[in-house]
Amino acid sequence: MGNLDHLFKVLVVGDAQVGKTSLLHRYVYDVFCKEYKMTIGVDFALKIVQWSDSVTVRLQLWDIAGQERFTSMTRLYYKQASACVVMFDLTNIDSFRSSRMWKEDLDSKVTQDNGDPVPCILLANKCDLSPWAVTKEEVDQFSKENNFIGWTETSVKENKNINESMRVLIEKIMETRDRGYSSLVTQGNYINLKDLSVPGSSCC
Q1: Which tens digits make up the pLDDT trace of 101-126?
Q2: Separation of alpha carbons 149 and 171, rounded Å
Q3: Does the global pTM surpass 0.85?
Q4: What's the pLDDT tens digit per position in 148-196?
């Protein structure tokens, strides 16, 4: 049996300065850049994951600039996306509140073939900083109310839960694909990644 090669487009959205570009650099290149450079429009990165002995997953990651939520260009950027990451800064309440608008914008512009929303994970970034501007209970309720597949805290700087959370998203993309885009239950629960091994996280 030959090797199966899957290509998926994954959007990374959220307000400016929440860590989207840093997430891509950490996940794809395993580096963290202290210097902040604002994304203009959209940036791209490719992550190749050897998912199993016979399956390779290529993630085409689209880093959407924070200000793009206010333009009509997002419909073009979102086209044919397989999944999405919505990210906010745990120390910035405005970025958390904006997550609802990002999710609503996404759901209104891209869907699966059967009309359901594409799988979307909520990442609460900068968990290494304090004080947090929002509680775990508030994030949990928000995630459930807005049909995320789940949420977890991350720290791009400390490389906490980056590979693990992306693996969860890939699993949901693969599940969606294998089910022929049938409806998936999205509980929105907190994703406990502490004991999660990360097979298939190597980069080619």
Answers
A1: 999 999 999 998 888 899 999 999 99
A2: 11
A3: yes
A4: 999 999 999 999 999 999 999 999 999 887 775 444 445 788 998 775 5
